[in-house]
Specification:
Keywords: Coiled coil. The structure is a single chain. The chain is mainly alpha-helical. It has a domain of 179 residues. It contains 5 helices and no strands. α3 packs antiparallel against α5. The longest helix has 132 residues. The protein is rod-shaped.
């Protein structure tokens, strides 16, 4: 049987079918299968590329976490905590997908190791052992990557729990503030009603006082007019009195004559 290649090195079957090519059938156990097996240099290059990619992913993840902590350091507001919680959940889903992909690759490697062990007689024990050693080394590297991804997932879950607690805390504070605001609003409405009632009472009192003032002013005006009339009558009386005295004086003069 021929070697089973990695998913990274294998060309997709759909592209071969579109181009009209057919999948090569693995030959029976033979020593000519070494032509189909990828070279050790290519295998090592792919492993280094994968390791470099995952190391870059880990470094990028660490930078994102550090940037997030510096950006949202100290006391978090409710909105910031919710946004960061959503971002961590997205990262957690992405990391879980990557872990599942790594597990699938590990299963492919284990399957290749099993097949190579079965092909030891056809390929030669020495070459098969060398290939198995490379695959086992790659399997160890993949296992380390999976462990790193698992560790990152655990850290992300811890961050999610911390942010959930903070969101709960700020939600409770927000509810308390809303309750306090509701109490203050009710007090404001009550005070506004009291002020309105007092304003109505004062308006009524002012109208009554204005009515009384108008009545007093009218009464004063009437008294003033009556006083003017009295003065006029008094003046006429005084004039008449003077006239009478003058007439009496004349009569006295006539009597003397």
């Amino acid at each position: 049987m021929g070697d089973v290649e990695f998913a990274e090195n294998a060309e997709p079957r759909e592209s071969k079918r579109r181009s009209g090519e057919t999948d090569p059938q693995p030959a029976a156990t033979s020593t000519n299968s070494r032509k189909e097996r990828p070279k050790s240099g290519a295998f090592r290059s792919n492993a280094v590329k994968r390791q470099s990619y995952h190391q870059q992913h880990i470094n990028r993840r660490n930078r994102q976490v550090a940037a997030g902590r510096s950006q949202f350091g100290g006391m978090l507001s409710s909105d910031m905590a919710i946004v960061q919680l959503a971002n961590l959940k997205k990262q957690w889903v992405t990391e879980m997908k990557q872990i599942n992909t790594q597990k699938k690759r590990m299963k492919d490697i284990e399957r290749n190791v099993t097949e190579l062990k079965k092909q030891e007689k056809g390929l030669g024990v020495k070459k098969a052992n060398a290939r198995i050693a490379k695959l086992e080394d790659h399997l160890d590297k993949m296992t380390g990557l999976v462990m790193d991804e698992t560790r990152e997932r655990e850290n992300a879950e811890k961050d999610v729990r911390t942010l959930t607690e903070e969101v709960t805390k700020y939600s409770k504070l927000y509810e308390d503030k809303c309750h306090r605001v509701e109490i203050l609003v009710n007090e404001k409405i009550s005070l506004e009603r009291q002020v309105l009632e007092k304003k109505r009472t004062f308006d009524t009192m002012i109208k009554e006082q204005e009515a009384r003032l108008n009545a007093v002013e009218e009464e004063l005006y009437g008294l003033d007019e009556a006083l003017k009339r009295d003065n006029m009558v008094r003046n006429r009386i005084n004039d008449d009195k003077k006239t009478i005295e003058s007439v009496l004086d004349k009569l006295r003069d006539l009597q003397k004559k």
